[in-house]
Design brief:
By secondary structure, the protein is mainly alpha-helical. It has one domain. The chain is 69% helix and 3% strand. The chain contains 6 helices and 2 strands. It has a two-stranded antiparallel ribbon with strand order 1-2. Strand 1 and strand 2 form a beta hairpin. Helix 3 packs antiparallel against helix 4 and helix 3 runs parallel beside helix 6. It starts with a helix and ends in an 11-residue tail after the last helix.
């Protein structure tokens, strides 16, 4: 029936006037409501998953920032080693996005300039 309703030379399209007279079968209203209800379930799940993902990313951002901040704070060598060890152990889980990797690079550069990666001579 739709094949008879379309027209055009190169591009096939349905003409509004022809479409208005097509008979379309629709499920009963109760069936339509059932379809909508079934579609609402996965949509609600998607919304919950999206919210959970956003919360997880927010927590990851806070953890990355706190970890890098602890590395940048002046601390005794043992505390610095502990903070560095923590960050290295959790590096793959903490730095997943380009901006987090850039922050890590900047922190490494700052720490290198401060001489945190090699033993320091107090006489220097």
């Amino acid at each position: 029936m739709i094949a008879k309703a379309h027209g055009g030379a190169g591009l096939q399209h349905i003409i509004k006037g022809e479409l208005e007279y097509l008979l379309l079968s629709l499920p009963p209203l109760a069936g339509q409501r059932g379809i909508v209800a079934k579609m609402d379930e996965p949509m609600a799940l998607r919304d919950r998953l999206t919210a959970a993902h956003a919360e997880r990313e927010s927590q990851r951002d806070r953890l990355a920032a706190a970890s890098l901040q602890r590395l940048n704070q002046p601390a005794d060598p043992n505390a610095f080693r502990d903070h560095a060890r923590f960050h290295l152990q959790h590096l793959s889980g903490v730095t997943t996005r380009p901006e987090q990797i850039q922050q890590l690079r900047e922190t490494i550069l700052i720490l290198a300039v401060r001489g945190k990666f090699v033993p320091q001579d107090a006489k220097d």
